[in-house]
């Protein structure tokens, strides 16, 4: 067992993107964005699950906009082009699964 801390740091700095843990074919990242901050379009070679722990994030996946909140999880297939923009200060967990 391992407990991994992901402290909320937006009071101290702007946009935060950090690797939290990696094991086997799984990568977990933490992204923290202030309202209006964006991450430009990119893709991942893995399956991706997005869990918003705080806030609201507008994802554009292959040209389709989807609002992701604390009440849902976004799943993306490998190589789907996506971008994101924080609608509110947001704390996001990204899980990449090969």
Structure at a glance:
By secondary structure, the protein is mostly beta strands. The chain has strands at residues 16-23, 26-33, 38-42, 47-54, 57-61, 64-68, 73-76, 82-86, 90-97.
Describe the structure.
- The protein has 98 residues and is mainly beta.
- The protein has a single domain, classed as Jelly Rolls (Sandwich), CATH 2.60.120.
- The chain is 0% helix and 57% strand.
- It contains no helices and 9 strands.
- The strands form 2 sheets. The protein has a 5-stranded antiparallel sheet, with no helix packed on it.
- The radius of gyration is 13 Å and the shape is globular.
- The protein starts with 15 loop residues before the first strand and ends with a strand.
- The model has no long low-confidence stretch (mean pLDDT 93).
Structural class: mainly beta
Largest sheet: 5 strands, antiparallel
CATH architecture: Sandwich
- Number of helices, where a helix is a run of at least 4 consecutive DSSP H or I residues: 0
Kindly, what is the distance between the CA atoms of the first and last residues, rounded to a whole number of angstroms? 22 Å
Helix content: under 10%
% residues in beta strands? over 45%
The averaged pLDDT comes out at 93
Main sheet: strand order? 1-2-9-4-7
- Count the E strands: 9
List low-pLDDT spans.
none
The CATH homologous superfamily is named Jelly Rolls
Which CATH class is shown?
Answer: Mainly Beta
How many separate domains? Answer: 1
Please tell me how large the radius of gyration is. 13 Å
Instruction: Look up the CATH topology.
Output: Jelly Rolls
Q: Shape, please?
A: globular
Summarize the helix and strand pattern as letters.
Answer: EEEEEEEEE
């Amino acid at each position: 067992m391992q407990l991994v801390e992901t402290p909320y740091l937006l009071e101290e700095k702007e946009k935060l993107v950090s690797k939290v843990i990696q094991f086997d074919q799984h990568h977990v990242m933490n992204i923290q964005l202030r309202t209006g901050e964006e991450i430009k379009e990119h893709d991942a070679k893995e399956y991706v699950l997005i869990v918003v722990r705080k806030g609201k994030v507008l994802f554009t996946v292959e040209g389709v906009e989807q609002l992701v909140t604390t009440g849902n999880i976004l799943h993306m297939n490998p190589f789907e082009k996506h971008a994101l923009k924080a609608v509110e200060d947001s704390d996001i967990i990204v899980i990449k699964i090969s």
